[in-house]
Amino acid sequence: MTTRNPDREIRPLRRALRGVLLAAAMPLLVAACGSDEAQMAVKHYGNYTVAIETRPSPIEAGVDEVVVVITGTRHRPLWDALVRLRALPNANWVQAIEDGHTGVYRRAVDFGVPTPTGPLHVEIEENGKATEIDFPLALIDKNTPES
To answer: How far is CA 88 from CA 8, 78, 101, 124, 126, in A?
Structure first.
């Protein structure tokens, strides 16, 4: 009497399933490598690392979303700070909203007319002490025709 080996029957099915999953995931992997991915600018102050992400990236003239990520020692989030942003030197500071104890702060910021040398000003206030950090950003106005 011959005994059936169930493992021998399952192996071809596993290979076929693996091939189908790889074929289905390939377009996602290729799309993830596109040029629309966010760019992070990183600076350090004290014991903290501050990373800035803009959406869209690169920044367009007008109002864009700015995401500020602040981490401390051992990559722990700084969640109890006040974060204020402005892109234009004469503009009022706007306070970023923190995403619940994660160290991630978000805000829409008006970048106005493109100024290639103008930085994004980030003010971080913790325990009554404020620190300003400037992040240089290249602005692209898509409304201006290319010559």
So the answer is: 68, 26, 29, 17, 23
Structure tokens at 74: 């051992």
pLDDT digits (tens, 9 = 90+) for 87-117: 887 889 999 999 988 999 999 998 876 654 5
Q: Where are the beta strands (DSSP E) in 22-81?
A: 40-45, 48-55, 63-71
Q: The whole model's pTM is what?
A: 0.66
Of 58, 104, 55, the C-alpha closest to 79 is: 104
Q: What are the tokens at 12?
A: 């071809």
Structural fold of domain 40-136: Immunoglobulin-like (2.60.40)
| Cβ contact 94:82 at 8 Å | no
